[in-house]
Amino acid sequence: MTTDPECIFCKIVAGDLPAEKIHEDDRTIAFMDVNPGTRGHALVIPKNHTKDLLEIDPDELAAVTRSAQTVSRRAMERLEADGINLLNCCGSEAWQTVFHFHIHVVPRYVDDPLQLPWIPAPGEPDEIAQTAKLLRD
């Protein structure tokens, strides 16, 4: 497996940093975003370190997309989301802040105030943990 010792997402994959993991398979992992735009906002990443959309192997991209679909279905069913945004940011000017490919799964609700781009702000850890319980396998 390809890793970057400085990458926070690689550290999450390795178990060196904590995360509220909600889905995992042999190629991907999904966990709650600590700066959520809405309730249930999660990130889906490949376990192999890849910088961005332009560098990810097509098979890895397909695996991440399948996992994002799984997480999206759970959010619709278990959180009663009204819709889902999938968002990938590729490059600093496109708001990419962690240079390990990832897809944001952002549940949307009729009355949510989110307007893109949102300005990330720390979420309530207990609420993130409780929501993670609803989204786990």
From TrEMBL:
<dbReference type="InterPro" id="IPR011146">
    <property type="entry name" value="HIT-like"/>
</dbReference>
<dbReference type="InterPro" id="IPR039384">
    <property type="entry name" value="HINT"/>
</dbReference>
<dbReference type="GO" id="GO:0032259">
    <property type="term" value="P:methylation"/>
</dbReference>
<keyword id="KW-0808">Transferase</keyword>
<protein>
    <submittedName>
        <fullName>HIT family protein</fullName>
        <ecNumber>2.1.1.-</ecNumber>
    </submittedName>
</protein>
<feature type="domain" description="HIT">
    <location>
        <begin position="8"/>
        <end position="115"/>
    </location>
</feature>
<feature type="short sequence motif" description="Histidine triad motif">
    <location>
        <begin position="100"/>
        <end position="104"/>
    </location>
</feature>
<keyword id="KW-0489">Methyltransferase</keyword>
<dbReference type="InterPro" id="IPR036265">
    <property type="entry name" value="HIT-like_sf"/>
</dbReference>
<dbReference type="Pfam" id="PF01230">
    <property type="entry name" value="HIT"/>
</dbReference>
<dbReference type="InterPro" id="IPR001310">
    <property type="entry name" value="Histidine_triad_HIT"/>
</dbReference>
<dbReference type="GO" id="GO:0008168">
    <property type="term" value="F:methyltransferase activity"/>
</dbReference>
